[in-house]
């Protein structure tokens, strides 16, 4: 059985997020506006006010309260939705940790924006990086159609009985948030059908907030260590679940994204570029041009960042002669970009090959075709045994 053809519209990324979130029928919504997410909160509030969605909108005084509302409602059994960005994500940090610890399957859209001490109302993935060890599943999307489709898949993932974890869907602020693209919005009955299996699951257990000594007791009160282990295990299970849900979505709606990672022209690639978010689309165009010039390069788009998709990455990158990673964030206290640092942890399994780190696209700077062209050329040179830089801050070398 296939889904019906949805309505095709030209929409901004934020409008797509609000529209599709409403199709998933959240019962409790708590959002606080912050640039560049504000239209998400405004649009979904309008959808409820117009009677198109039966949901409770809780007006809060800040992002910390928004996450507290969503966590409490989720633990009570309601489907919830929220959205934020940058310092809003930082402001709710303590409640993000608690939401994950209580295994509340909250779904949140995070519109990526820088979070440095030097105030920057600009694009960057530093907010995502600042919460990578919070216990949330984190997924990064490339374009507005992927926003629509992944948001639906986020509910299937978060509320799955074997997972029961909050999910953060990330997309580039100031790029996708305000970018108008053609998007097919699924019809309500098909979204309902795709999410219907969640209603047939056993009733999920509830972790009651309280104190733990770490003694690991059993029975009515779960010990701290046991709870952490089960949380860790659910994160590990989520990797396979992401692949399964993506395939099922593709079979039904006709669009799929590879699950944990998307591989582009990797079958015969000799070198590989690893990128995420909207930059992956630019990278695909560059790879097409470089292929025409005789360079066998492919792209691995990192979609699932937490849990880190190590098995899929090893499978995709093993045997390549050189690899480069483009990070739109930095890793304080370490030499390489955050995603490159994590990939280097897999070096012994991938093979003893050059892994080059590139920092680009910070503070609204574009990751351009010439930039990625340079990355490809330098990666190809490294594959031939020529000297290369371990890390390159592209904007500082222009």
Written description of the protein model:
This protein is an alpha/beta fold and 398 residues long. It folds into 2 domains: 7-253, Thiamin diphosphate (ThDP)-binding fold, Pyr/PP domains (Rossmann fold); 262-397, Rossmann fold. 39% of the residues lie in helices and 17% in strands. It has 14 helices and 15 strands. The strands form 3 sheets. It has a 7-stranded mixed sheet with strand order 3-2-4-5-7-6-12, sandwiched between helices. Strands 9-11-10-13-14-15 form a 6-stranded mixed sheet, with helices on both faces. β14, α14 and β15 form a beta-alpha-beta unit. α3 (63-75) packs parallel to α5 (93-101). The chain is globular, with a radius of gyration of 21 Å. The protein starts with 6 loop residues before the first strand and ends in a 5-residue tail after the last strand. The mean pLDDT is 94.
Task: Please give the structural blueprint.
Layout: E1 7-12, H1 13-23, E2 28-29, H2 38-49, E3 56-57, H3 63-75, E4 80-84, H4 87-91, H5 93-101, E5 107-112, H6 126-130, E6 137-140, H7 144-158, E7 167-172, E8 180-185, H8 188-195, H9 224-253, E9 261-264, E10 271-275, H10 279-292, E11 297-302, E12 304-306, H11 310-317, E13 322-327, H12 338-344, H13 347-350, E14 355-359, H14 369-383, E15 391-393
Parallel strand pairs: 2-3, 2-4, 4-5, 5-7, 6-7, 10-11, 10-13, 13-14, 14-15
Antiparallel strand pairs: 1-8, 6-12, 9-11
Summarize the structure.
The chain is α/β, with parallel strands linked by helices and 398 residues long. The protein contains 14 helices and 15 strands.
- Summarize the biggest pleated sheet: 7 strands, mixed
Nearest-angstrom radius of gyration? Answer: 21 Å
Euclidean distance between termini CA atoms:
52 Å
CATH class of the largest domain: Alpha Beta
Class per helix and strand makeup: alpha/beta
């Amino acid at each position: 059985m296939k889904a019906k053809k949805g309505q095709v519209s030209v929409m901004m990324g934020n409008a797509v997020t609000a529209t599709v979130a409403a199709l998933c029928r959240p019962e409790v919504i708590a959002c606080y506006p912050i640039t560049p997410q504000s239209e998400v909160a405004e649009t979904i509030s309008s959808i409820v006010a117009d009677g198109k969605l039966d949901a409770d909108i809780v007006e809060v005084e800040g992002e910390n309260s928004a996450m507290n509302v969503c966590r409490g409602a989720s633990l009570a059994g309601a489907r919830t939705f929220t959205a934020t960005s940058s310092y809003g994500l930082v402001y709710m940090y303590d409640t993000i940790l608690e939401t994950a610890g209580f295994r509340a399957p909250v779904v949140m859209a995070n519109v990526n924006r820088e979070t440095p001490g030097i105030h920057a109302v600009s694009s960057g993935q530093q907010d995502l990086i600042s919460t990578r060890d919070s216990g949330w599943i984190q997924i990064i999307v490339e374009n507005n159609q992927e926003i629509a489709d992944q948001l639906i898949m986020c509910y299937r993932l978060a509320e799955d009985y074997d997972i029961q974890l909050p999910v953060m869907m990330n997309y580039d602020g100031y790029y996708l948030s305000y970018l108008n693209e053609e998007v097919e919005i699924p019809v309500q009955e098909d979204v309902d059908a795709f999410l219907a299996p969640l209603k047939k699951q056993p009733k999920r257990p509830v972790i009651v907030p309280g104190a733990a000594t770490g003694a690991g007791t059993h029975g009515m009160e779960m010990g701290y260590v046991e709870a952490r282990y089960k949380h860790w295990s659910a994160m590990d299970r989520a990797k396979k679940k992401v692949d399964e849900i993506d395939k099922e979505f593709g079979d039904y709606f006709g669009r799929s994204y590879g699950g944990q990672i998307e591989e582009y022209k990797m079958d015969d690639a000799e070198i590989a570029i690893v990128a995420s978010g909207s930059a992956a689309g630019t990278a695909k165009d560059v790879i097409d041009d470089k292929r025409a010039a005789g360079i066998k390069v492919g792209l691995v788009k990192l979609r699932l960042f937490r849990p880190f998709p190590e098995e899929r990455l090893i499978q995709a990158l093993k045997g390549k002669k050189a690899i480069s990673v483009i990070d739109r964030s930095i890793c304080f206290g370490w030499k390489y970009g955050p995603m490159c640092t994590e990939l280097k942890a897999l070096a012994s399994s991938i093979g003893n090959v050059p892994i080059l780190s590139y920092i680009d696209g910070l503070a609204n700077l574009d990751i351009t075709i010439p930039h990625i062209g340079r990355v490809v050329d330098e990666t190809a040179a490294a594959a031939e045994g020529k000297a290369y830089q371990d890390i390159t801050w592209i904007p500082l070398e222009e």
